[in-house]
Structure formats: C-alpha cells, structure tokens
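Researcher: Let's try something more involved. This one mixes different molecule types, so please make sure each is placed in the same coordinate frame as the others.
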Amino acid sequence: MMSATASHVRVLLPSHHQRPSIATGSENFCRRQIVPRRFRAMVATTAAAKYKGTKMREEKLSELIVEKVKEATEVCEADERSEGCRVAWDEVEEVSQAKADLRIKLKLLNQDPLESFCQENPETDECLIYED
Amino acid sequence: MAVSTIYSTQALNSTHFLTSSPSSSSSKQVFLYRRQSQTNRRFNTIITCAAQQTIVIGLAADSGCGKSTFMRRLTSVFGGAAEPPRGGNPDSNTLISDTTTVICLDDYHSLDRTGRKEKGVTALDPRANDFDLMYEQVKALKSGVAVEKPIYNHVTGLLDAPELIQPPKILVIEGLHPMFDERVRDLLDFSIYLDISNEVKFAWKIQRDMAERGHSLESIKASIEARKPDFDAFIDPQKQYADAVIEVLPTQLIPDDNEGKVLRVRLIMKEGVKYFSPVYLFDEGSTISWIPCGRKLTCSYPGIKFNYEPDSYFDHEVSVLEMDGQFDRLDELIYVESHLSNLSTKFYGEVTQQMLKHADFPGSNNGTGLFQTIVGLKIRDLYEQLIASKATARAEAAKA
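Model: All components are placed in one shared frame. Result:
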C-alpha cells in the first residue's frame, strides 16, 4: 500500500541531500541510533520508540487519523459548508500535526520523548521497554 | 535568579535605617540612608535586587506547537537546547531551556476536542480559547510570578492537570492567536508571524501526511480548504500587528515550479520598533537586487537571488529582505552573511555558525533557516538592550 504512494512522495521531498555536508557535531545527537542523514519521508517514524507509552501514542494517533479522515469525508458529503464539516477536518489537522510532532521529537531528540519521564517513573505501564 | 547591584560610597559607621520601596513588581529595592552630621550631603547606599527581567515574544503560525525548528534555532542563539519539562506530564507542549521557556497557546483552549465538536467551532476560532486566562498568566510571568498553566493534550484531545511554569528570562508564546487579544499584544516585546503561502502549505502538508495511512492527496487538500475560512477570518489578520513577518512563497527562479522544494522567503521588518534595527543589504533604505553568484562565487542551479527594499505593509513602513534559492555550500553562506548589515551578530560568521549547528533541520539551506536565525539574533539583541536600559533607568532613579 505504502509503496504505491511512495513514488508520489518522492517528487515532493525537500532536497535535503543538497545541503552542505559539513561536520557539525551532530554526531553528539546520535548516541543510540545510527540514522542515515538523508531525509526519509516514506517512513512514518525515524528514530524508533523505546517505551511502550510512545509506541501506544504513535499507534493511537495513526488510528485517529484514519478514523477522523473517514468521519470528515462522511460529514462533508452531506453538507460541505456546514460547521460540522469544518470541525471534522480541523480535527484531522490536529491529529495529523500531533503525529508529525511525535515524529519530529523522535527525530530531533534522537531519543524517546518519554525518556526523562521514565527515568523518574520506571515502574509505570507506559515505561515498559517496547520490544519489536 | 536575582541580580543585586550595590552602590556604596563610604564606610558605614553611623546610624542608618532601612526602607523598602514598593517599586515596580519586577525589582525590589532596599534603601539604606546614612545620616552624616558633618556635611549637608546625604550618602545613600542603595542595594538593588532586581528579579530578572522577562521579555515576551509572540510567534504566530499554523503548524501546531512543534514549530520545533524555529524554536530550536531561537533557543540555540541564546545557548542551550529547549526540552520538555523533566518528570512532568509527558504530553506537555512546553519547552524549557536555561534562558527560554516556550509556551504553546493551545494550552489556553477553553474547549477540548469534544467540546469544540459540540459547539461546532474549530481550534482556530477565538471562541475555543480563553484569552482572559492567557492574558493573566502571560502578565504574571512577565512580572516575575510563577503560574499553574493548563495543559492541552493533543493525543487525547483533553485538558490535563496544570503544570507549574517559572518566569523565565525569555518567554515565547507560540500558537494560533498570540496577537489576537489586544491586552496580550500589549505585553509582547516582539512579535513574529510566519506566513506560509497556500502552495507551500500544500506541499509541506503533503510531505507531512502522505506517509500516513488514512491520508491521500484529496484528504490533505480537503483539510486545508475546510480550515481556510476560519484561518482567513481569525489568524491571518494578526500579521498586521507583527514586528516581523516571515513570508514563505514558491520560488520565482524556476518557471512553473510546483514542487515547493526551492523557496522564496521574505523577511518583512517593521520600522520604528524599539530596540529592533532591521537587517539591510548594502545601503539602508534603498532598493537593491543582488545575485551573489558570479565570478567570485559559483552556485549550482537555481542559484541565489536577494532583494532588499523599503515598502509599506498594512499602512506601516517596513523594510523587506528577500532571499530566493538555496545555499549549496558553506562558502555561499559566509559570503552572503558578509554582505548583510545590522545582523546583530557578536562576531563575524555567527549566522553561518548557527546555521551549520543545525544543518539537519529543515530550511537550513534556504531563506527560512537564514531568516529564523537572524530573527533569533535580533531577539537576543532586543533582550540585551532592554536589560541594559532597565539597568540604566534604575541607576538613574537611584542617583535622583
């Protein structure tokens, strides 16, 4: 499924490979992961989730996106100009952005966003180490 | 963090008494008066303990509160990395560094996701936001008082228990409505509006969402279209109040380009803003068109083009610095930096250094990264000037 759309996506990527390739000390960020510096937009997540809580959030948000898009399509079919239609697509935007923010956090921090929370609260359910 | 300034004149060996003056809430002053019987002059020893000054920056844009790139560049200029508060609610939207705290204005939603659905309002609608609380808390933080700020959880769509926010040196409020309410606007020391054109917004949202199952080109387009009326009515008008607008448009260097890879970015800077001196190219107030690529500098396609000119924006005088194209190599960046003036850098090459520090952030090779970095330096400059002027004012008040 995803590969069918992958060719779509490739055209529209920003040209990160054209950036100056100069040592910037970003190696300091790559403690845990060796993530290729090229931008990989086809993949939904870049750095991997370590804790159950983060994995759960990722899955929840992905499901929400599917659900809300479906809902919005249905509501707007009835009346495109209605408040309900606008609110429904706004919800789609909210969850899409939340999912993207999680991805950004994983990529930029290069660690699980729950890291500091789980240092303090290792016994909570959310802080179970996620194993693939 | 208290800074104490002690002005002492002579050894204190006669009677003196203390009074504390109820001065401005951001500083506490203790006056020691020493009576000297021999002469007519009175020597005052004033110990001034000023709580830190807090400056408030407003950042408006429509891409959630993970404007991580801009925020990270900004906090990096001040030193340190901004991180979510340690040990608190993991879904907090707040970012904290040594000097800067970034608050997401979604936390001031008065209606959660269910509430908005019931009332039929989008998050863009002012009716979904509590501006009274926003004003009270920003005012409190600005005057050095910690607040318990609500948390809007974007995963659950609910309002979580509040978190304690300490007053920082620099407070950034980012979100959809930083300049909507007049009272909040008056608290801002500097404001920025990120104005993304429709074509670029579409390209970015495709890049953001296409990998998600559930999304398609149609759904992405429909979402943008459906939000447009509220966006145009409530969010867009705020740009007239901004001290700096960063406008992101498709490039003009590539005919019929619709990929949104190469960008044309305009930095629109309001004239006459206190402590803010706009960046200029070659000759302030004139109109310049500059292509740095030539004999001294070789650039790859499509190259780089700069424009600088005075203009009028919503009846204000502004200066507009525009960059179209992409940086390819380090020397292009440093070359461009060496020709810009009023950058508020502390040393030659600081802009380039900051850009390189975050070379893997999006926008590092074009005007978005460049202007975000420059705005960061301008804010630092503004902060330092403000602190200096307040210190001078206190010293003068003390002498009087």
